[in-house]
Design the sequence.
């Protein structure tokens, strides 16, 4: 076992805080460790223990989090003893990691040593007391002179401050000259406009925070879904997202309502083919919380945000470990046989829930899914707009629509490389592929965002659980 300490500066001096499992910091009221630093986001970053390792995750902050001057990537970073964390304008923390066995030995040995050395310490203490008494007399004599001198210096400082206030133009300008002078331009007007838009957005969102989703007006619900969906888009897209169009927000709301309608007091845990959708939402989230730790480890290992894995599994199987589709795919991640074999799973032709293969082993399936999604993300590029394309492609398999997505992107080369652009321009798909895209994939990605919204914000929907991505053990 390890013991982890966070050391940070306050107005009262250095403080130490023991990290038990997970800690959040930022400038908001909901975090565990709050700093008065305008450069921090409300929820800026999380630090948590995962066995013998300590992780730091940047929670999609505006200005980023840095460890030893290296920016923390979206998938997080493992911390080492002595690492220095910097965030915001002036927030700094140091992390110390100890083996609890070493700490315990130190605590036992120290009293034993001190008992053998007690007599010499008494003799030395008496000598020190005499020396201090003489030294104190000398210092008190010197202070009388110093106070008079300090008084004179303070008067001099005060006169200089008054002079600077009266003649500010005499201040040195060397440092100020580094900043170029700006004239009123289109850029400054745009900056003001963007700032005003952010203020309006913040005021609108503040009106809904702290309230349950069902208590909001229709306009407030749209604002809530837009904010949460774009936050998820930024997280899975490595801190840069893309605006989600209004028609997509409406689609996300419709799928979100489906999960809300299944929140009920009567609990049903059903993972049978054809009836698994009868399970209630709380049961689904509880299943997901049990699977989350190994999904998180698997996706971090591939450099992907674990929310991708958690919510792909939620919309593929509602976290049922051995669900089988009527068309053949099996397991929590609904792997077809060929894809499963490609990513290292042992499969059998006649596999089923009663005769399972490795597709029904949740941990092995999670590792394979992380590798597969890493491939898909690379296939469509690593930019933030490519992540929804990778998720859409997961739904379509290695061939078929997946290949036609690439063809469509080449055909629409003058447009943004974006799933939402394809949604708005579905004419690039023809025949059966276009029909599949319009019937299935247009719904698949919004459903992913709906699952992530309720899974990362369950308390906003009256469900007493933590965000699924925080279940690390």
Sequence:
């Amino acid at each position: 076992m390890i013991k982890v300490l966070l050391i940070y500066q306050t107005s009262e001096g250095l403080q130490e805080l023991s990290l038990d499992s997970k800690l959040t910091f930022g400038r908001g009221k909901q975090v565990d460790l709050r700093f008065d630093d305008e450069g921090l986001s409300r929820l800026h970053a999380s630090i948590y223990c995962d066995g013998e390792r300590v992780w730091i995750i940047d929670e999609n902050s505006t200005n980023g989090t840095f460890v030893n001057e290296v920016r923390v990537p979206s998938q997080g970073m493992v911390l080492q003893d002595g690492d220095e964390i910097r965030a915001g304008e002036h927030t700094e923390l140091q992390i110390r990691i100890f083996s609890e066995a070493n700490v315990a030995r130190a605590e036992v040995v120290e009293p034993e040593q001190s008992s053998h050395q007690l007599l010499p310490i008494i003799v030395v203490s008496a000598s020190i007391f005499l020396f201090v008494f003489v030294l104190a007399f000398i210092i008190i004599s010197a202070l009388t002179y110093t106070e008079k001198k300090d008084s004179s210096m303070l008067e001099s400082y005060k006169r200089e401050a008054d002079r600077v206030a009266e003649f500010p133009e005499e201040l040195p300008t060397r440092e100020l000259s580094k900043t170029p002078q700006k004239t009123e331009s289109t850029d400054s007007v745009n900056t003001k406009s963007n700032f005003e838009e952010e203020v309006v957005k913040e005021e609108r969102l503040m009106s809904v925070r702290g309230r349950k989703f069902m208590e909001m007006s229709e306009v407030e619900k749209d604002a809530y879904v837009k904010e949460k969906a774009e936050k998820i888009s930024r997280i899975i897209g490595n801190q840069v997202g893309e605006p989600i169009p209004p028609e997509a927000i409406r689609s996300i709301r419709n799928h979100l309502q489906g999960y809300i309608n299944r929140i009920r007091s009567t609990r049903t845990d059903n993972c049978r083919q054809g009836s698994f959708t009868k399970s209630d939402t709380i049961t689904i989230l509880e299943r997901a919380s049990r699977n989350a730790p190994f999904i998180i480890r698997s996706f971090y290992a591939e450099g992907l945000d674990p929310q991708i894995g958690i919510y792909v599994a939620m919309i593929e199987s509602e976290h049922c470990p051995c669900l089988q589709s009527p068309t053949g795919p099996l397991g929590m991640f609904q792997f077809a046989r060929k894809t499963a074999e490609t990513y290292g799973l042992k499969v059998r032709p006649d596999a089923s829930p009663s005769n399972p293969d490795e597709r029904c082993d949740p941990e092995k399936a999670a590792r394979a899914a992380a590798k597969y999604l890493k491939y898909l993300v690379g296939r469509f590029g690593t930019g933030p707009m490519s992540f929804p394309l990778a998720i859409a492609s997961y739904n379509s398999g290695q061939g078929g629509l997946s290949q036609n997505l690439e063809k469509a992107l080449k055909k629409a080369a003058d447009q943004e490389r974006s799933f939402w652009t394809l949604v708005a321009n579905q004419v690039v798909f023809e025949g059966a592929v276009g029909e599949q895209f319009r019937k299935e994939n247009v719904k698949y990605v919004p459903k992913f965002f709906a699952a992530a919204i309720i899974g990362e914000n369950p308390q906003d929907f009256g469900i007493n659980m933590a965000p699924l991505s925080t279940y690390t053990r």
Notes: The two ends are 15 Å apart (CA to CA). Residues 106-117, 145-196 have pLDDT under 50 and may be disordered. The domain at 217-470 is CATH 1.10.530.10 (Lysozyme). The first helix runs from residue 100 to 116.
